[in-house]
Design a protein that fits this description.
The radius of gyration is 21 Å and the shape is globular. The protein has 385 residues and is an alpha/beta fold. The relative contact order is 0.16. It binds pyridoxal-5'-phosphate (PLP). The site of pyridoxal-5'-phosphate has 15 residues, from helix 3.
C-alpha cells in the first residue's frame, strides 16, 4: 500500500544525502575525534565541518554550537544549566503550550522550590508579550518560550520576547525544535541566549541535536564527565549523528525556499479543501503566524483517534493533537490552553508536511478523509440529526 506520510512534526525521513554522508562513520571512519593521533584529528575535522554547517543555518558562530543527543536534552540542559549557575534566582517563566521536554522539567522544578509562571495563549494559540513583561520579577532566572508549536505550528514573536528579556537582564531560552529548517533564523538579529534544535525534525538522524549558547551566558554543564564539546557536554561524540545533522542543516538551508513556497502551497490546499469538504471542520491555530508545513484541523463531535485509525487503513500517517504524548488519550494541553471547545479538542488532527510530499499526497487525503468524517459523524452520539 502506498504510504502518505504527513506526520513530519513527529519525525522526518532521513534525506538520502544525509545517510550517505553518515555511512563512512559506521565503517572506516570509526576514530574518536578527541584522540590525539592523526586518525582522531581527521574525524575531528568532520565534526568541525558539521558544526560550521549547523552554525550557518542559525546565522551563528561555530563556537556557539554544542552537540547533544536531541531536542529533549537541549531543553533540559538549557533550563537546568542556567538555574544551576544562577542559584540566587528561583523563578522561571514559560508558556502553557510548551513541549513536555520543557513543561515537565519546569513542573519538576516546582517540587524543588522553584516558582513557575506559565503564560497562557489566546484562541489562536498566540502569547501576549505584555503578560511576559508583567511576569518578570527580580527573582526571574530564565524565560523558556518555544519558537514554533509542534501541534499547531503557531510561531511566537521570539525576537520581541527575547528583546524584553534582554532589557530586563533575564536569560532567554527558546525551544526551536520545530522552527529550525522551516523558517529563517538569524541569531545575529535575535537576542536569544539559548536555542534547542533536533536532527530528526529536519531530515537528519534521530538521537542528535544541538544547543546554541550565546557567549557569556551563565550556565553549567548538565551532562558531566569528559571534556568533550569544550566542557559543555560530556560523552564521546556521536560522530555519525553529528555529520548527519551537519548535512541536514546544509540541505535545510538550500530547501528553505521550497519549504516556504511549495510545501506551504500544499498545506494551504489541503486545509482549504478539508474545511470546505468535511462537515464540522475548523482550523486550530493562527492563520498567518504559523509554520508553512503544519495544519491542525478539528472535526467537531468525533474522536481524533478513530479518524487516525481509518486514515491509517488508507496508508495515511497523521497524528492527533496529543501526538507528542502519544500513548495517552489525554486531550491536548495545547488545544485546551487555546480554549478549543471540548467537542473539538478530541477530534483534532495534525497534518505536518515536508519537501518529500507531493500534490498526489494531498489529492489522496482530500479524497479519503471527508467520507471518513461523514462515516464517523453518522455514528457519533453527539451529532444531532
Ligand atoms: C517542540 C519540541 N521540542 C522538543 C522535542 C523533543 O525533541 P527530541 O525528539 O529530539 O528529543 C520535540 C519533539 O517532538 C518537539 O516537537
Amino acid at each position: 500500500m502506498r504510504v502518505v506520510y504527513v506526520d513530519n512534526n513527529a519525525t522526518t525521513r532521513v534525506a538520502p544525502e544525509v545517510s550517505e554522508a553518515m555511512e563512512p562513520f559506521f565503517g572506516e571512519l570509526y576514530g574518536n575525534p578527541s584522540s590525539m593521533h592523526t586518525f582522531g584529528g581527521q574525524i575531528a575535522r568532520y565534526v568541525s565541518e558539521a558544526r560550521e554547517r549547523v552554525a550557518a543555518l542559525l546565522g551563528a558562530d561555530a563556537s556557539e554550537v554544542t552537540f547533544t543527543s536531541g531536542g529533549t536534552e537541549c531543553d533540559n540542559t538549557a533550563i537546568m544549566g542556567v538555574l544551576d549557575a544562577n542559584p540566587d534566582k528561583r523563578h522561571i517563566i514559560t508558556t502553557r503550550v510548551e513541549h513536555p521536554a520543557v513543561r515537565n522539567v519546569c513542573q519538576h522544578l516546582v517540587t524543588h522550590g522553584y516558582h513557575v509562571t506559565e503564560l497562557g495563549v489566546d484562541g489562536e494559540g498566540m502569547v501576549n508579550l505584555d503578560e511576559l513583561s508583567d511576569a518578570i520579577t527580580d527573582d526571574t532566572a530564565l524565560i523558556s518560550m518555544m519558537w514554533a508549536n509542534n501541534e499547531t505550528g503557531v510561531i511566537f514573536p521570539i525576537e520581541d520576547a527575547a528583546k524584553i528579556a534582554r532589557e530586563q537582564g533575564v536569560i532567554f531560552h527558546t525551544d526551536a525544535v520545530q522552527a529550525v529548517g522551516k523558517i529563517p533564523i538569524d541569531m545575529k538579529k535575535v537576542p536569544v541566549d539559548l536555542l534547542s534544535l533536533s536532527g530528526h525534525k529536519l531530515h537528519g538522524p534521530k538521537g542528535i541535536g544541538a544547543l546554541y549558547v550565546r557567549p557569556g551566558t551563565r550556565m553549567t554543564a548538565y551532562i558531566m564527565g569528559g571534556h568533550q564539546e569544550h566542557g559543555r557536554r560530556a560523552g564521546t561524540e556521536n560522530t555519525a549523528g553529528i555529520v548527519g545533522l551537519g548535512k541536514a542543516a546544509e540541505l535545510a538551508a538550500a530547501n528553505m525556499d521550497a519549504e516556504n513556497t511549495r510545501v506551504r502551497a500544499m498545506r494551504d490546499r489541503l486545509e482549504e479543501e478539508l474545511l470546505k469538504r468535511a462537515a464540522g471542520a475548523l482550523r486550530n491555530g493562527h492563520p498567518i503566524h504559523r509554520l508553512p508545513n503544519t495544519s491542525n484541523v478539528a472535526f467537531e463531535y468525533i474522536e481524533g483517534e478513530a479518524i487516525l485509525l481509518l486514515l491509517d487503513e488508507q496508508g495515511i500517517c497523521a497524528s492527533s493533537g496529543s501526538a507528542c504524548t502519544s500513548g495517552s488519550l489525554e486531550p491536548s494541553h495545547v488545544l485546551r490552553a487555546m480554549g478549543v471547545p471540548y467537542t473539538c479538542v478530541h477530534g483534532s488532527v495534525r497534518f505536518s508536511l515536508s519537501i518529500y510530499n507531493t500534490d498526489d499526497d494531498i489529492d489522496c487525503i482530500v479524497e479519503k478523509l471527508p467520507p471518513i468524517i461523514e462515516r464517523l459523524r453518522a455514528i457519533s452520539p453527539f451529532v444531532k440529526t
